[in-house]
Amino acid sequence: MPAGTDPQVSSIAPRSAAIAVWNIHYNYHRPHSAAAGKPPAACLRESVINVEPSYI
Predict the structure, then answer these.
(1) What is the pTM of this model?
(2) Total structural domains in the chain?
(3) Which residues of 7-28 are buried (b: 16+ CB within 10 A; e: fewer)?
(4) Could you tell me if residue 32 is inside a domain?
(5) What confidence tens digit (pLDDT) does each residue in 15-41 have?
(6) In a domain, 18, yes or no
(7) Is the residue at 1 inside a domain?
(8) What pLDDT, on the 0 to 100 scale, is given for residue 13?
(9) CA 20 to chain CA centroid, nearest Å
(10) Over 80: is that where the pLDDT of 52 sits?
(11) 38 pairs with which residues across the strands?
């Protein structure tokens, strides 16, 4: 296989970006029944300062 054409290596960046978006949604926007319909991050005692600007 020629250098730079490994499908696993070339697909890491898109997967990493997708996981980052999913993680923000899962923790900061997804309602959770155990938290009275609030997202899990709403249960934190400290404020969250590392949320992507597009999700604020």
Answers:
(1) 0.54
(2) 1
(3) eeeeeeeeeeeeeeeeebeebb
(4) yes
(5) 888 888 898 899 888 999 988 899 888
(6) yes
(7) no
(8) 82
(9) 3
(10) no
(11) 32
